[in-house]
Amino acid sequence: MNSEITKKLIKIIILTLLISYGLDKLVFFGLNKISDNVKTGQAIGKLNHFLELKDNTDFLVFGNSRANRHINVDLFSDNSYNMGIDGVGIAYNSTLINTLQENKEQFILVHIDTKNFFDTTYDGSDIRGLKTKYKRNPIITSALDESGQLSKLQQIYYSMNYNGSAIGIIKNYFKPSYNYKAYNGYDPILVSEDQEDMRDIVLSNFSTDNECTDSHDVNSIALNYLKAIKSFTEKSPNKTFLFVTSPMYNDTCSTDNTKLAKIMLDLGLNYMDFTNLYKDKKDNSLWKDATHMSQKGSEAFSKLLINNIKTSKF
Amino acid sequence: MLFNSLEYLLFLPIVFIIYWLLKNSYKKQNILLLISSYVFYGWWDYRFLSLIIFSSFLDYFVGQKIEEAIGKKNKKRWLLVSLFSNLGLLGVFKYYNFFADSFASTMSAIGWEVNDLTLNIILPVGISFYTFQTLSYSIDIYRNQIKASRDIVGFFTFVSLFPQLVAGPIERASNLIPQIEKKRNLNITLIKTGLFQIFIGLFRKVAIADNLGIYVDSVYGNYEIHNSSTLLVATVFYAFQIYFDFSGYSDIAIGSAKLFGFNFNRNFNFPYFSRTLTEFWRRWHMSLSFWLRDYLYISLGGNRKGIIITYRNLLLTMLIGGLWHGSSWNFVIWGGIHGLFLSLEKYTFSAFKIKTFNAFGYIYTFIVVLIAWIFFRAPDFHSASTIITEIFSFNYGTLFIGNVNAFVNALLLLSLGILIDLKIFRSGTSLEDYGVRYSAIKLSMIMAVIILMLCLFYSTAENFIYFQF
Q: pLDDT tens for residues A43-70?
């Protein structure tokens, strides 16, 4: 390789890096502008909506798709929001809870899934769902930095924060999915007649793969995020916290539930476990699949949950 | 080490710089390439390096013995040593459990229960590729097509050269060894075409294939609950996923090799733009299909022994080609479907005295390939047949979308991938040579846009599909 070739190669590489760096910033700031105005859609709209109203609500629900689909927040308060998001775990929720104003009086319901606390593969990567707010929200930025879940390249190429969500954001910018002002975050699942057969097949084939033993090792990452919520509860005396596990179709292992209840008790956190609420009912109409209830199931569960909350003293 | 990993992003430039600092001695460069290749492979599992080293020693030694042997009989004896040893290794690591399991099932079917004979064997990555590469070397020497290598470092480098070590292209000794055993030069054409191909390959794999894979996995993971339209769309997506995954891998391999002054053979030539299945196999995984043609089909007699033997040879070649991909009856069926249709095509061409089909041939070819892909993707025969039955039951209800963002991204990227392919295909230039047309600035802009696309659309798949073979 002679010096002429070396020069040309270096030129191509430097040009590529410079242009890509410039393009990246252009796209990043452009998407920031657009995304700030997006209030619909799971990619970013729901998060924006939450960040906008989080300190002006009385009742907030955090959790994954099961929280999103199972808890009708309107039954609890007119001024409420369900921040349940598909596929997220305790890392995502703990970070969002830490963005709340400490002094504001609120009821915070955190939906947790027992299996996630004993899943050895859980690495807290669901926190990446907040990456669109990286370098834009100090609490989220700090949590993402501490998690080590972001690629080192993300420090150079900011547009990676919009990985996988750019198209959704642009779509929701031009055509919002719904009227967000009338949206409370709760998305019940309607099971159509067409889907009933499919649902019945899924439920009849359902079996839990997890080995049920008496000794479950708690995932330390999940536990640390739980402790981060605990710390926040201590700084927020005006807030009431309740942790809830909603029903499952057929949970064949109860030892992990017992262990999680013990952990919650040791941490001094209020916890209600409804995993087996409908276990003996065998009513498929309450379900969409083995982990998600239908609207019928969710409404019934929400009513029962509110009664339990009203009769409990926290 | 994966091509789409941060490790490779560091590994490639480091090896590249040291390599060209050693430009005055190609032998030193070969030592560097050999060490780098072993590091590259050992990154996955260093224990299996012993297999590559054993295979390299064996064929280096046997190659010389074949050349030195007097008389066809003696040469054949040494060739058989290579064949049995290489295929023996492949048989143990790749096929033992398959045959043990099939044997047990057959015995069970006739009422004889046998104990579980399967073993806990890990399939070494790339074993099918480097075994075929070393086999072709010995066969070529036996056929007097090449001379045996006397440069041990050069030969070991030929077997393990990192860009092609784990998933090809399966390089012929006649192409690669002469390049290894002489001084290499880097010119601006190689740099431009190499970089262009690496970036296109990354885009194909990381952006297109991996995004398509999200939908395919979600549908094929629960195939029994989906209707015809969903299964059909998932299968079409899979057809493009595997194409962009594997051709993307080959692009990065060929492009990387160019940066070291090597010219690898082309591995893909827009296979879905084929009017016949015969043409498809001249465009799909070309290094394997030409290998099968030259070392299996022709060895069986090719088309020289009458029409019936020709059909038998075609079918047998494709069945073995199917089995090469993996130890499962699904791969055998996949090969069988291709073999059957290749035979039917051969018959049609000779009966009607035509050389190819008209424009409908594109549709016909794609449909046959699509049906065969179902066997390739489905976990077992039962699921494959269920999927085919469902697709042909014409229960075309509402399409399952799943994650809307992921689905839309996949569609958009697929469209972009097809448009890029169409543009290059219609230009009459191969992808391998396409990058040369751009100035440094234009090329940099293209690569910068690809970087941006990767930032926005990368998806984290664990592996390249063909690693499992």
A: 689 999 999 999 999 999 999 999 999 9
Whether residue B191 and residue A9 make contact (CB cut-off 8 A), yes or no, is yes
SS3 of residue A239 by DSSP: strand
Partner A contacted by B259 (CB < 8 A) = no
Q: Nearest-CA distance from A171 to chain B in Å?
A: 10
**pLDDT at residue A18 tops 60:** yes
Residues 6+ apart with CB under 8 A from A291: A66, A248, A249
**pLDDT category of residue A80 using cuts at 50, 70 and 90:** very high
Mean pLDDT of B46-58: 91
Q: Do B456 and A27 touch (CB under 8 A)?
A: yes
**What is the token pair recorded at B215?**
């939908």
User: What confidence tens digit (pLDDT) does each residue in B326-344 have?
Assistant: 888 899 999 999 999 999 9
Q: Which of A8, A12, A163 sits opposite B457 (nearest CB)?
A: A163
- Residue B461 confidence (pLDDT) above 80: no
CB-CB: which of B185, B456, B459 is closest to A159?
A: B456
Q: Which of A289, A262, A298 is nearest to A114 (CA)?
A: A262
Q: How far apart are CA B223 and CA B216, in angstroms?
A: 10
* Dist CA A124 CA A136 (whole Å): 21
Least reliable range by pLDDT among A239-243, B42-46, B262-266: B42-46
| The pLDDT of residue A30 | 94
DSSP A63: E
Disruptive mutation site among B452, B454, B457, B460 for chain A (greatest number of A CBs within 10 Å)? B452
Q: Which two tokens stand for residue B146?
A: 């090449």
Residues of B in contact with A20 (CB under 8 A): 447-449, 451-452
A8 Cα to chain B: minimum distance (Å) = 8
Helix (H) or strand (E) holding A24, with range, is helix A3-36
Helix (H) or strand (E) holding A20: helix A3-36
Contact A43 B405 (CB under 8 A): yes
On the CB side of A309, CA atoms within 13 Å amount to: 20
Decide: A274 and A285 in contact? Cβ < 8 Å.
no
Tell me if B23 and A1 make a contact (CB, 8 A cut-off): yes
Residues of A in contact with B439 (CB under 8 A): none
Catalytic site includes residue B325: yes
E strands, chain A, in order: 59-63, 80-84, 106-111, 239-245, 271-273
pLDDT at B195: 96
Banded model confidence at residue A168, pLDDT cuts 50, 70, 90: confident
- Residue A42: name the closest of A160, A185, A188, A140 by CA: A185
Q: Is the confidence metric ipTM above 0.85 for this complex?
A: no
